[in-house]
Amino acid sequence: MILSMTGYASHELNTQYGVLMIELRSVNHRYLELQLKLDDHLRVFETSVREQMQAKLGRGKVDCRIHLKQENLTTQFAAINHQAIQQIAESLQAASQYFDAVQPVDVLEILRIPGVTQSAKADHDVLETTIKSTLSDVLDALIHARQREGEKLKDVILARLSEINALVIQVKPMLPVLIQTYQDKLTHKLKEALVGDDERVRQEIVLYAQRIDVDEELSRLDAHVHEVSHILAKGGAVGKKLDFLMQEMNREANTLGAKSVAIETTQISMQLKVLIEQMREQIQNIE
User: Fold this and answer.
1) Is there a contact between 5 and 59 (Cβ–Cβ < 8 Å)?
2) DSSP E strands, 16-131
3) How many DSSP H helices and E strands does the chain contain?
4) pLDDT digits (tens, 9 = 90+) for 249-280
């Protein structure tokens, strides 16, 4: 299967330590580049997260964000610091003697004071296992997203290949007629310039015919078309192979244009280069 390097996946999981959120964004890149953004208290897991991602991904620039939301742990897992509560109570009692009327104490406000409650300490091994398991699911989702995008890219490239193949089929029967027409014009001009020297005229025509012969270029272009189709059918990490073939196909299209002796073949050469460039743009996103 063909994989794009563009994709997105995320997941949120309620854990005993809070809501764990993992988000992955991927774009095209020459190699695999990982950019990790973990909460400060999760940085201890950065090495294992990086190794897990490297084991599943081939190429692409991947942004990974891992966040553990612990805002709502107070009422569920927080333990009261009785010493801090006692100190606050004594302070309130001492302060109340200076005022005629004192409002009732809001217990929830007291609990929000730093140091009054102590959140349950996360178990390192349990949290690491949870992060690994969740990350594995998100990586699978990212890979599936990249597969779906890769199939779309494959369809676009195959459509362009079909157009290229049609142009090659179109130009092949045209060449003998176009070349013969041009040679007749050239022969007439040479005979006028080289009066009586038929052998010299013949030699010039043969040399020129060799220079404008594009049969070899068309054969290589046809071979490249079939090779690209074969690679797409085989699948896997084929981006670099396809990029190389685009360079080769563009070289043949340029040669066809350089050797062109008629407006028809020049136009076909331009069409070929446009189609090849369109494929190359899509291939930049393939792993």
Assistant:
1) yes
2) 18-27, 32-38, 60-69, 79-80, 117-118
3) 9, 6
4) 999 999 888 877 778 888 999 999 999 999 99
